[in-house]
Amino acid sequence: MAELIVKPEPTPDADGTLLHITPESAGWTYVGFRVVRLDVGHTFGQTTGGSEVCLVLLSGRADVRTRRRKWTGIGQRMSVFERTPAYSVYVPNDDEYEVTALTAVELAVCEAPGLGNHEARLIAPEQVGVETRGYGNIERRIHNILPEQEPADSLLVVEVFTPNGHWSSYPPHKHDRDALPNESLLEETYYFRVQPEQGFAVQRVYTDDRTLDETLIVKDGEAVMVPKGYHPVSAPPGYDCYYLNVMAGPHRLWKFHNDPDHAWIMTTQRT
């Protein structure tokens, strides 16, 4: 199995890529993920081939075009920790896109198999579902960028903000069996930002039989691959944690199974 933490390059490569996960590098089938940083006036573009793509403007403003559509001056937050929903663009397979930075831009490129069922579209902040999930020190803020209720072939994309001292992806849950209606098989990447940036998050990835049992110290700008197993996250006191989740599998449904040792947590009295 590949190492679960993927570290960014010290400096972007010629096209701005800092971090790149492919199905081949991950040793799985569905999810691809890339982080690109662009200076003002620089561009990043690709053809989508057999993949659908969700371009998430993590920070900055940009023009984005596909073969048939163009959006100018999109983006509003300069940091993910502003906690406002992102501007995103959905691009189907057999299309192309180009992103031109109007300010410094951090861009996430989320990929999964496409079937040609949808048109390119802008996902504006007001179209992003915002919710608070959990309670007490497992409370966190969720931005549903591309949930299963919105059109796509494979991709599920969500942002999570975990306040310092809190846990998220908690109670520990998994989605590694194609066993609908109870559980869906979804590969998943986590892309982390931490504030202040010298901090870290903690993520555990483990299976019931403990053939996979890793406790990971994740730094700002790193990604974690979750091929299977439970995968809770902790934000240490003093350090707020952001992550962008990308999921995909044979069915575009998020049906998870809580670790039975810890599922009781959700049945206790909320205060």
From TrEMBL:
Listed PANTHER family: 5-DEOXY-GLUCURONATE ISOMERASE
NCBIfam families named in the record: myo_inos_iolB
Keywords in alphabetical order: Isomerase
EC numbers: 5.3.1.30
UniProt keyword Lyase, yes or no: no
Database matches in InterPro entries: Deoxy-glucuronate_isom_IolB (IPR024203), KduI/IolB_isomerase (IPR021120), RmlC-like_jellyroll (IPR014710), RmlC_Cupin_sf (IPR011051)
Superkingdom assignment: Bacteria
Protein name according to UniProt: 5-deoxy-glucuronate isomerase
Molecular function, one GO term: glucuronate isomerase activity
GO biological process: inositol catabolic process
Top-level EC class as recorded in UniProt: isomerase
